[in-house]
Amino acid sequence: MESAIDKHMQCPRTLSRRVADDYTPPFPMVVARAEQDLTQVVMAYLGVQYRGEENRAEALETLRHIVGTFDVEDGPGEWDATQHTDNSGYDNLIVVGYWRHPETYTSWAARPEVEGWWSSDDRLQGNVGVFREIVSPRADQFETLYAFTEGFPGVGAIMDGVSGEIEEHGYWGSARDRMPKSQTDWMSASGQLQTDGEKSGRVVVRAHDNICLIRSGQDWVDAGEAERKLYLEDVEPVLRAGMDFLRDNGEAIGCYSNRYVTYIDLDGNPIEKSYNIGHWRALDMLERWAESHPTHLRIFTKFFEVVESLEKLKLYHEVSTFDAADQYYEYVNCHPSTGMLRDATVPAAMA
């Protein structure tokens, strides 16, 4: 058994863990490991928004264009594409790319075929909107957790290896305990979301320190018939209910944006993988919902009911927090409740 925090990231704690030193987790889990040269990563959520089946072809072509720009020099080391329908009735296609070093991402993003396309006034035309949600946590600001040991999705795919069985899981607050920064910092929120103008056209949302992002995923591609049935009929409906609650009611409890997405190929066909993309005002607000809200307690209880029956279903998550300067949110031709736009205030001079 080892700590989720790698040895080179450990330091004398000024803040204690949520469990005693002799705690033993109820089942095995692992985390991704990275060499010391990984000091900060980039996670770029690049979205296409449309409404109505008549605009789907244009949206998919836009998605394929974005993915095509990954082929130029300095593209991401990992990416995947998803689809979801938001509670305003708009369909959203999102491709997320992961870069191991911010300098590589910056080089890619500055290329004319990338920045020129995103900044063009052409993006303000047509029947689709686009958005960029770019976050860049330092190595001490994110954690991972996996119920499997190879083929990691998300940020784990650009890391270097895997831990042995870890101590910090299976209890409330364990995600915080896996994050190196938690050894000395509460990672509390400060400031507010604010737009640089009205919530239409091209809008940039200015972030605050310690916004929290969770990606929590499920992969049943390799599950057998019985296990797939167990997941889709017993587990997934409970999970979906919790995700829908956060999508529709998250504003009151500190959840800025919640998207329950399904993997797709570049023709829009679904793949048997899903994950949640949740932006929270701060990690403590995510923790409070997880520990106390009935919608999450039902998910947690259902998981423990079936965990011993799961063989091929892959479960994982990654949780990150960010400095204000390491976040960029831009929405072009999108509806005003998209992503971080919903909770951003308009400057008084423009209201």
Automatic annotation (TrEMBL):
GO molecular function, one term: metal ion binding
UniProt cofactor(s): heme b
Key words, A-Z: Heme, Iron, Lyase, Metal-binding
Annotated InterPro entries: OXD
Family annotation (Pfam families): Dehydratase_hem (PF13816)
Recorded family membership: Belongs to the heme-containing dehydratase family.
Name of protein: Aldoxime dehydratase
